[in-house]
Design goal:
Number of strands: 5
Largest sheet: 5 strands, antiparallel
Strand order of the largest sheet: 1-5-4-3-2
Radius of gyration: 14 Å
Distance between the termini: 29 Å
Strand content: 15-25%
């Protein structure tokens, strides 16, 4: 089981990821915002190194955090670990280059889709959850 990550650990991973400059197949498609799983990325190329999912999926909030008017799909959307979808994410790294990504399964009414987003240290916020 992967360790539960706090915000400071998440930031450290994101900063290491941002420092990677080598080309890699994991960067064939921009993953700055949430994307469906790209066909160019192999599942075996990533390994899980942590989790942001503190609560079971059915207990976690579906509230999103967008204080500046961003949306789920925005590349500028904040990464707020206590809010959806981040509160259901695993943190994964590329075995080839070390870049880090957020991953979760978007379970809709009729389908389930694996989603992935690059981990940008500038977007991580330590926003407390408020009902």
């Amino acid at each position: 089981m992967s360790p539960l990550l706090d915000v400071s650990s998440l930031r450290a991973i994101a900063q290491r990821s941002a420092a990677v400059s080598q080309t890699c197949p994991c960067t064939a498609k921009s993953l700055a915002g949430w994307e469906g799983w790209p066909v160019t990325l192999r599942e075996s190329q990533l390994r899980q190194i942590g989790s942001l999912a503190e609560l079971a999926e059915e207990e976690a909030t579906l509230d999103e955090y967008h204080p500046d008017g961003t949306s789920y799909w925005s590349v500028a959307a904040p990464i707020a670990p206590l809010y959806y979808p981040y509160n259901q994410c695993g943190v994964w790294e590329c075995l080839a280059c070390g870049r880090a990504y957020l991953r979760y399964n978007d379970d809709g009414a009729y389908h389930s889709e694996s989603r992935i987003r690059g981990l940008d240290p500038a977007l991580i916020v330590d926003a407390p959850y408020q009902r």
